[in-house]
């Protein structure tokens, strides 16, 4: 099974590189990218899970409605992506459920920072996808964590996929930089070894960041953004479809466990 997801947040990446960006500018980027993703998913007839911040949900109700209308799952991704707080677990659930009119079952912490597992369970979340079981300098050091889904209490933990043995990251940044043939080979290796593949991207990856030098975004992040990323994701989706592997939402997967 393929668990495809998108961390749907207000675009705040320039802040990490010393550039302040207004909420309006950030939302414009995120909405543009999300609509491009939705166009691609509709064309390929696959479903995904959108982990949405409270700020994004409140400021883009029409995009939220489109996500639901086209059959995708909405889950929580905190409130303010730039400043995660422990209270986000409850507040983001309240906001997203109010905006969508639907119950939310899943959570992913911004930047996959640590999250209170007991509170996740207490608030009624059924799954938590806030773990990247790899070593990425400056971000994660989780080489001792399980690579595949496992339970903590009653909550299913759904880690992002990494390759067997070496735990090479195969997340969004790898898709930007590995040669496409190698990236797809690593993804298929992981899929066949584990029986599932968990991958996530961001809406801003589908906007041409290279045309905005004023945002001071490093090359390692802005490479192959915009149309280049659309082509790469489309090729990855078609590779999985050629293998006749189903795409399922995170809640569909959770309910099967």
Secondary-structure-derived class? alpha/beta
CATH architectural grouping = Alpha-Beta Barrel
Give the proportion of residues in helices.
40-55%
The gross shape turns out to be globular
Q: Tally the beta strands.
A: 10
Largest sheet: spatial strand order: 3-2-1-10
Number of domains: 1
- Write down the secondary-structure element order: EHEHHEHEHEEEEEHHEHHH
Taking the sheet with the most strands, its summary is: 4 strands, parallel
Mean pLDDT: 96
Q: Over the alpha carbons, how many angstroms does the gyration radius reach? A: 17 Å
User: Can you identify the CATH superfamily?
Assistant: Glycoside hydrolase/deacetylase
CATH topology title:
TIM Barrel
Uncertain residue ranges: none
Strand content: 5-15%
What is the CATH level 1 assignment?
Alpha Beta
What does this structure look like?
With 257 residues, the protein is α/β, with parallel strands linked by helices. The protein has one domain: TIM Barrel (Alpha-Beta Barrel). The protein contains 10 helices and 10 strands. It has a 4-stranded parallel beta sheet with strand order 3-2-1-10. A 4-stranded mixed beta sheet has the order 4-5-9-8. A two-stranded antiparallel ribbon has the order 6-7. The radius of gyration is 17 Å and the shape is globular.
């Amino acid at each position: 099974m393929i668990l495809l997801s998108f961390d749907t947040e207000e675009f705040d990446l320039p802040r990490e590189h010393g550039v302040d960006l207004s909420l309006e500018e950030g939302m414009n980027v995120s909405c543009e990218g999300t609509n491009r993703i939705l166009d691609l998913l509709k064309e390929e007839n696959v479903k995904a899970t959108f982990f949405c911040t409270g700020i994004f949900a409140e400021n883009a109700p029409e995009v939220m409605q489109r996500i639901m209308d086209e059959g995708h799952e909405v889950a929580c991704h905190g409130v303010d992506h730039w400043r995660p707080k422990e209270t986000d677990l409850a507040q983001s659930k309240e906001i997203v459920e109010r905006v969508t009119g639907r119950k939310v079952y899943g959570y992913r912490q911004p930047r996959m920072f640590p999250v209170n597992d007991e509170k996740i369970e207490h608030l009624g979340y059924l799954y938590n996808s806030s773990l990247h079981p790899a070593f990425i300098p400056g971000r994660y050091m989780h080489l001792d964590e399980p690579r595949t889904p496992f339970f903590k209490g009653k909550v299913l933990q759904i880690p992002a996929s990494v390759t067997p043995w070496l735990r090479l990251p195969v997340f969004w940044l790898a898709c930007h930089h590995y040669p496409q043939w190698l990236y797809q080979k690593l993804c298929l290796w992981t899929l066949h070894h584990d029986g599932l593949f968990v991958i996530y991207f961001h809406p801003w990856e589908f906007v041409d960041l290279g045309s905005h030098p004023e945002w001071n975004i490093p090359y390692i992040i802005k490479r192959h953004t915009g149309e280049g990323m659309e082509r790469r994701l489309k090729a990855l989706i078609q590779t999985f479809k050629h293998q006749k592997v189903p795409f399922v939402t995170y809640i569909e997967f959770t309910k099967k466990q």
